[in-house]
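Minutes, project check-in

Agenda point 3 was the complex the collaborators sent over. CS summarized: two entities, 488 residues total, and the question is how they sit relative to each other. Sequences were read into the notes so everyone works from the same version.
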Amino acid sequence: MSPDADATTPRAHHLHPLALRIMHWINAAAVFIMIGSGWKIYNDDAIFGFHFPDAVVIGKWAQYGLQWHFFGMWIFVFNGLAYLCYGVATGRFQQKLFPISPHEIIATVGDALRFRLSHDDLTHYNAVQKILYLGVIVIGVLIVVSGLALWKPVQFSELADLFGNFQTIRLVHFFCMSAIVAFILVHVTLALLVPKSLVAMLTGGPIVDERKPGGGAAPQIEATP
Amino acid sequence: MPIRARTPSIFRPREPINQSLLTGHRALVEEINRRGVLRGAISLGALAMLTGCDVSEDDSVQKALRTVSAWNDRVQETIFRPNHLAQTLHPSQVVKPPRFNAHFSIDEVKPIDGANWTLELAGRVSDKRPWTAQQIYQLPEQEIIIRHICVEGWDYIGQWSGPNLRGFLDRVGADLTAKYVYFICNDDYTESIDMATALHPQTILATKYANDVIADPFGYPLRLRTSTKLGYKNAKWIKAIEVTNDFRETFWSKQGFNWFAGI
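CS then shared the predicted structure for the full assembly.
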């Protein structure tokens, strides 16, 4: 069987299938819009003793920030829902993010502290990666839910009541944003340190054959652009 | 498109900009602008965007964003629960005085002479006789202690009383199947709300705050107070009410704020 024929069978595919790459970059754009415009909205009534500089916010005036935020939310939510359905339906979440064993976490943290973390195999996530990816998905859900409660504290009062008063919902929404920004800093830094991981999110990365034990990369097949 | 700053923030001057300064240096400012345009044209457009131009002001971008905002109006109309009440709070939680907010500062408020003030009625209303303040203040009152939420993010609890808007519309023979109730205010402010909100049990024409007649800065003699909209929809210093099927942009929606502004 030629490698090409192998690649077209349903069980052998790119590490990052095309659908997933499209959702990743749509999400990147949506998150960019939501954070930049969210910072503009924050500036109108700062929760803490600082404002985001004008240079990093989206929208010169409050109404522009709001317009972008309530435009971006549709993209973020529908793309996010599509991603969640995809992750569950294809088994990708199950395969990539689970199980996370405490033993593995300790080992990974130990390796990281000794600068021995290997990124040779893009197809396998270490325990810290698993936690970060899983964590950011959970935060992504929470930021939408808290956002709905902020947007409609009366219409969705049952939801808003789960958080507490209006200012508490704002805090939750803000801390979710902070967590996502922290994730992005780590995620982008590591992507730049291991450029092939960035290339993989553009071109698809190595072909993965799930029939092999461990579902690792099939080394005889080069990544196709 | 002229955009007025909504409220003071540390990024905006608290005093209006001295126009004489601009007039005196117009030539210089235009010269700088020309140089800026030249430089912008030579440098990369994307770079210019990153260094301070706001793409939102571009006409086509603004048109697209406002189209989404109009779509969001319809979404909000759909999810609106006509009889779902906002949480009411305890008198001990009421903030006194209420928090002032308008498109001008509190010392620019032009008090209304209640003795000579009348409320005009227009549009799809059978009894268009104007109302004096005295007549309105004699109507049965409803009290609501509710949270005021501003689009900026702050909130406070206020205690408002006055005639229920639905009861008032009934009394003057308004067409309750019309689409909008439009408010024209003394400070050239306009607001309009959808009929479902106008008929909501917690929508009142407020005449009192914390059991006292509303003070000048907060809308004396008559203002709207509804539990289901952001602060700016609650028109102050109302001088006319029109019941209509025609959608009209309002003071803030003209400037790009969402029209429905439900909470």
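Noted in discussion: Chain B has two domains: 1-53, 70-255.
Follow-up: revisit at the next meeting once the mutant set is ready.
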